[in-house]
């Protein structure tokens, strides 16, 4: 009997390809007996205006109907099969963008007529705009249920025409026996978007029928029929839909005893797979993992009906289809092919980049390292550093990391609140040497200059083509005054920023095309913001400018500030709640006094008065400060001229960007001198200007590099002059640091005296009242617990507080009475505060402070409650004879600590996973080398989703 074919064409709203598909149907060498066009787009769709004739039928399904619902609606429209034709009634399912070639149906019928066991036959789907390329040819699944296209995206050379029996075929162009369709219940309603045809084919196989491919039947395909001609919506959406379909089929196919275990594994697997997606630079799919896991676990209303339908039609065991599943070898071969295709598409760089070793980058880094070792030679055998804004850090990693996040801060009289974000940076540096965390700070001091050189060299190489220019830029930047002044005065955060800025610039420049670069930029953005909060406005402006200039990469760059936002939100809320939101920009670490430089001095690169030490150095030989200022101006002339003329070079865009960075940095430095935020004794001090000067110098050096790279004449002499005067400008800072004139000095790691430290071993909560005479004759007082305050315990919440708490007020009253002769009885306050020692530090120089120190020492000597211990390295020490344990409430970190740490772990963990490079990177060509000797492509290219 002649088989009867009913073609079902599903046409959604806006079906732009419908005419081509209908034309293909009209030219079939073996036309179908009936055609049903199912309009699912509503009254305004193109299908609703079709004029069909003959055996064709136009019917409308509810808008938004799935493919399964549309086919079911079509079968209702055509009615039951004619009597006696059930076995020879066939359904040919097409989407509006599945245009069959002339002999497609004839070839399909020729195959099924000679093989009665075949119930489903699929054509070779070809690309709509590239008819010679296979869009899809057969489907299968892995042992874990993931769907896999057997062939996709390959040029058709008949290399796969030997395939016949397969596990599944695509829905587009599928020819299925109507009786089998009805027996199996059609497509699963729980799979409206992906894998509906694969699931149906699998059930047909388990019911004892064959599913085959017909390579001679070709159908042009523009997209998946389940999508109804809609845009795929990107890789993230396709990944989410495929995962949802896989989880649905897993619950449907699982044995009854295994079903609870599969259900319980949905969320844990989502977590593990999200980590993998981040490593694979596919962050969009990570969110979809949780969405599909929860929707499948709590919204899988079709699972029960699908399991019942499968059990009713299933006649064979799952082992019957095992040979048709994808094997590990096939998957490995497929991944290798995809990788080869990706590598083949990676283009060589148009211009060969400078070699780090051959172009002088390594030698500049070595020179910077030598300068660092010479300048800080006194620190080589020291386990810690102190002075200026520095203190040793906690002696154990547990104590070090306990200072991070939110909790009890043992500083002053103690308080519960968020930590400074910089505490995390200190904790990371301390973790580098877990046996002695303070040694990590010493290692950073020695490595800061060479690391700055490496970062500057890499950033300059990105801006230039001449091989020697990055070496000059690295030399000038690595020994520039901002970093040396920061290291000399103990501004650790500013030094960390100086090292991180070139790497941040490099990552931001590449973030528009690389998830790894964007994630790296987000981490470096957070490090710079945490180390120098005063640069946050400049960082935000730079981030917005980067997005504006590279709008196509916006989706990769939007998340750059997120880690920094997560770090600062608790601190911003705490500062805003007490009306001091601007205190967020205070420098982290120990507050120190600094003499603010004038705008002219800042323009010359000096963050403090004294022209980077030149004034003091030349005063001994009779040269005045004004004369020295003129000489410094002349020294800065080469850098300034080269930066200024860069706007006239061909690479004007790069030059303008560099000069904008310099302007932002200089503006930040000038503004910093006008904000007195942190308290130091009886006075306040402003934000250190050296942080802004780091950006200022980075921009100037970058702009000068552009000039050296593009100006055709006199560039080698100009580069040599720039390098010489750039190093010479920092000579006084290097000398001052070498001879120990700076404020940073070696330390044994002990904050208080050995006597107090020994006592703190037995009584970790013992308090030491530290009295510090100030130059103006006032008295600063602090209460330190145990072995003393450490760098990781410092908090800008304490340094910027404008009102005294009741406990702090009592502390100041107690200190004032102890240093004077009065009838005040301090026993109650000493007992409540847990004070065991009183330490009187030396006054800074002669004057009122020295007089106060003498009077305070006499008052404490005459007080019978205190026993003199003697002079120590920290000052004069007295022991309180009636010291007892503190009677105040026990310390508590509060309920917010776990929440904040969890959020930080998620944010930074995700960024770190994304930052790990795992995808192919285009190779860099080497001039003068044949292709066979060129370097192999490594991993850097990523999907643009």
UniProtKB/TrEMBL annotation:
Gene3D superfamilies: Spore Coat Polysaccharide Biosynthesis Protein SpsA, Chain A. The chain crosses the membrane at residues 251-272, 362-380, 441-460, 523-546, 558-577, 621-648, 655-675, 687-708, 720-741, 896-916. Keywords: Membrane, Transmembrane, Transmembrane helix. It holds the Pfam family Glyco_tranf_2_3. Coiled coil: none annotated. Residues 919-945 are annotated as: Disordered. It comes from the Bacteria. The lineage of its organism: Bacteria, Bacillati, Actinomycetota, Actinomycetes, Micrococcales. This is Glycosyltransferase family 2 protein. SUPFAM superfamilies: Nucleotide-diphospho-sugar transferases. InterPro entries: Glycosyltransf_2, Nucleotide-diphossugar_trans.
């Amino acid at each position: 009997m002649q088989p009867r074919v009913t073609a079902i064409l599903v046409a959604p709203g806006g079906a732009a390809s419908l005419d081509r598909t209908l034309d293909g149907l009209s030219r079939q060498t073996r036309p179908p007996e009936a055609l049903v066009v199912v309009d699912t787009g509503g009254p305004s769709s193109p299908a609703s205006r079709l004029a069909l004739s003959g055996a064709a039928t136009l019917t409308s399904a509810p808008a938004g109907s799935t493919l399964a619902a549309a086919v079911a609606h079509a079968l209702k429209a055509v009615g039951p099969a004619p009597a006696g034709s059930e076995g020879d009634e066939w359904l040919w399912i097409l989407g509006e963008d599945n245009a069959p070639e002339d002999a497609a149906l004839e070839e399909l019928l020729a195959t099924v007529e000679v093989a009665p066991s075949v119930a489903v036959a699929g054509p070779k789907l070809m690309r709509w705009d590239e008819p010679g390329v296979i869009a899809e040819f057969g489907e299968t699944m892995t042992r874990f249920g993931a769907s896999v296209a057997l062939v996709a995206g390959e040029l058709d050379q008949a290399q796969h025409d030997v395939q016949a029996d397969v596990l599944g075929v695509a829905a587009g162009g599928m020819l299925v026996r109507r009786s089998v369709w009805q027996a199996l219940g059609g497509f699963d309603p729980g799979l409206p978007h992906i894998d509906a045809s694969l699931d149906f084919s699998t059930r047909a196989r388990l019911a004892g029928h064959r599913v085959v491919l017909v390579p001679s039947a070709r159908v042009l395909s523009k997209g998946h029929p389940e999508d109804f001609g809609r845009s795929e919506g990107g890789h993230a959406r396709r990944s989410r839909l495929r995962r949802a379909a896989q989880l649905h089929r897993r619950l449907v196919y699982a044995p009854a005893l295994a079903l609870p275990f599969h259900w319980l594994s949905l969320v844990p697997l989502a977590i593990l797979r999200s980590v993998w997606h981040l490593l694979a630079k596919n962050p969009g799919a990570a969110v979809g993992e949780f969405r599909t896991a929860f929707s499948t676990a709590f919204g899988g209303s079709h699972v029960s009906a699908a399991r019942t339908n499968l059990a009713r039609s299933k006649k064979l065991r799952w082992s019957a289809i095992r040979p048709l599943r994808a094997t590990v070898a096939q998957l490995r071969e497929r991944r290798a092919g995809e990788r080869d295709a990706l590598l083949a598409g990676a283009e060589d760089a148009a211009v060969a980049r400078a070699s780090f070793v051959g172009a002088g980058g390594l030698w500049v880094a070595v020179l910077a390292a030598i300068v660092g070792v010479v300048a800080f030679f006194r620190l080589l055998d020291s386990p810690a550093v102190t002075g200026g804004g520095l203190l040793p850090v906690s002696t154990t990693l547990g104590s070090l990391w306990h200072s991070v996040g939110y909790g009890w801060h043992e500083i002053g009289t103690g308080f519960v609140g968020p930590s400074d974000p910089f505490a995390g940076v200190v904790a990371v540096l301390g973790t580098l040497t877990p046996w002695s965390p303070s040694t990590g700070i010493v290692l950073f001091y020695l490595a800061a200059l060479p690391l700055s050189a490496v970062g500057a060299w890499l950033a300059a190489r990105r801006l230039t083509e001449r091989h020697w220019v990055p070496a000059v830029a690295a030399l000038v930047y690595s020994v520039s005054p901002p970093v040396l002044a920061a290291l000399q005065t103990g501004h650790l955060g500013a030094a960390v920023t100086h090292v991180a800025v070139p790497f941040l610039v490099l990552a931001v420049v590449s973030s528009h095309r690389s998830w790894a670069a964007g994630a790296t930029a987000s981490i470096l953005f957070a490090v710079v913001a945490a180390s120098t909060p005063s640069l946050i406005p400049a960082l935000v402006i730079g981030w917005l400018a980067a997005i504006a200039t590279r709008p196509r990469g916006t989706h990769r760059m939007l998340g750059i500030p997120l880690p920094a936002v997560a770090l600062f939100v608790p601190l911003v809320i705490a500062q805003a709640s007490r009306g001091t939101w601007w205190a967020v920009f205070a420098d982290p670490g120990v507050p120190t006094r600094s003499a603010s430089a004038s705008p002219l001095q800042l323009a010359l690169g000096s963050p403090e008065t004294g022209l980077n030490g030149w004034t003091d150095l030349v005063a001994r030989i009779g040269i005045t400060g004004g004369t020295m200022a003129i000489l410094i101006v002349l020294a800065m002339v080469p850098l300034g001229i080269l930066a200024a003329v860069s706007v006239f070079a061909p690479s004007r865009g790069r030059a303008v960007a560099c000069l904008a960075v310099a302007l932002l940095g200089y503006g930040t430095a000038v503004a910093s001198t006008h904000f007195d935020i942190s308290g130091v004794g009886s006075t306040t001090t402003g934000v250190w200007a050296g942080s802004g000067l780091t950006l200022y110098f980075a921009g100037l050096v970058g702009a000068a590099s552009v000039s050296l790279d593009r100006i055709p004449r006199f560039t080698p002499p100009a580069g040599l002059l720039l390098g010489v005067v750039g190093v010479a400008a920092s000579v006084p800072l290097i000398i001052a640091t070498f001879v120990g004139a700076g404020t940073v000095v070696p330390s044994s790691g002990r904050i208080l005296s050995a006597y107090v430290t020994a006592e703190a071993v037995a009584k970790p909560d013992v308090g030491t009242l530290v009295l510090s005479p100030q130059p103006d004759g006032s008295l600063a007082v602090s209460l330190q617990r145990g072995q003393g305050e450490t760098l990781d315990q410092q908090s800008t919440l304490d340094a910027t507080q404008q009102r005294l708490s009741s406990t702090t007020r009592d502390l100041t009253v107690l200190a004032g009475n102890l240093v004077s002769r009065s009838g005040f009885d301090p026993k109650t306050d000493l007992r409540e505060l847990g004070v065991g020692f009183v330490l009187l530090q030396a006054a800074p120089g002669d004057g009122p402070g020295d007089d106060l120190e003498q009077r305070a020492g006499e008052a404490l000597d005459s007080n019978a409650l205190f026993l003199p211990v003697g002079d120590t390295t920290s000052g004069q020490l007295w022991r309180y004879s009636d010291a007892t344990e503190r009677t105040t409430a026990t310390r508590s970190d509060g309920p917010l600590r776990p929440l904040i740490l969890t959020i930080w772990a998620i944010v930074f963990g995700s960024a770190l996973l994304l930052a790990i490079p795992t995808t192919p990177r285009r190779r860099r060509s080497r001039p003068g080398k044949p292709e066979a000797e060129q370097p192999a492509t490594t991993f850097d290219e990523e999907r643009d989703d």
